[in-house]
Specification:
mainly beta; two-stranded antiparallel ribbon; 4 helices
Length: 361
Amino acid sequence: MKQSSTVGHALADFCKPAFSVFRPSLSTVLLLLTALTSPAQNRFRSEVDSAYVQTFRGKLTGRAYLSQKYTSFNLSTPTAETPALRFLPNAPLNLGIGATFNALTLNLAYGLSFLNKNNGKGETRNIDLQTHVYTRKWVLDGVAQFYNGYFLTPRGRAAASPELYYHRPDLRVRLVGGAIRRVFNFRRFSFRASFVQNEWQKQSAGTWLTGFQFYYGIVQGDSALVPEQVRPNFPDEDVRRMRFLKLGPSAGYAYTFVYRQNWFATASLMGNLNATFSKERFENRYQTRSNVRPDLLFQVVGGYNSNRWCVTLGWINGSVTVRNPLYHYTVHTGNYRFTVARRFIANSRLRKLVPETIKVL
């Protein structure tokens, strides 16, 4: 555990210079090649039932989008009588552009000042890297998130005035990890159509999913995590830091409902059964525990799709939970996104750079 703590501190120290170089609203997601090339076009076609999924090989999908990423933190007790403390980041709303060609996707987003108002919620400094890679048979999710500064909701709770938010500029949340999921009905179901916009789901279809996930996280403050104003409702011992490791298998289901070929709604739900190892630091002692806890990941997106245009509104949310005798901890991580995408015929230079035919993983 001592070595893990050293690694965690080193990672935090490494990220501090980045906070001063990059604005908190800068978000860059680079998804590299996720499939291998193959010379057999008929083999690629056999992987897809064209009555259900239309592919657009040789076409470039360009997009513009608005997105808001977040990593929030809930602190509660085993008794339901005490309302949970809900700490939220003052996360920026980002304006982005991107493109997908075959297996290569590149998105770049930046928070514009006129899109982000403080509204008395304080300042959050963050580096938030999230990647969601959708191949034909696999889905890979990865996060590397470093958040400094939170506010407590609802307005007025633990604050000096009912009109103000309680700020915790010292509260820090770190979360690193990822998940992999196997798509079974890959011939008739497409995650790409909903989340990458480079395919078109033309008939309703669903699929079972299985996978594995791994996460390591730290939640800490310079003082007790529970504010002084609400401390009488919480245990006498003040927790100041909690770190955890979670890993285990997962299973779930995804379904896309299609109305008149063009309108669609996709929902995916994964349940994860994780071995959970945690270490809490109180004022005068440490407490280490291990148990098995379930977690959830869901994705929803809906919109319009056609040969040229795709418009989507989506939400991805995952949660990791640690439950100990005195305190319960939940870290929520996710992304809201509104996307407008357009497909274009790619020029010969781009086709040579990224081969048109794909061997599906």
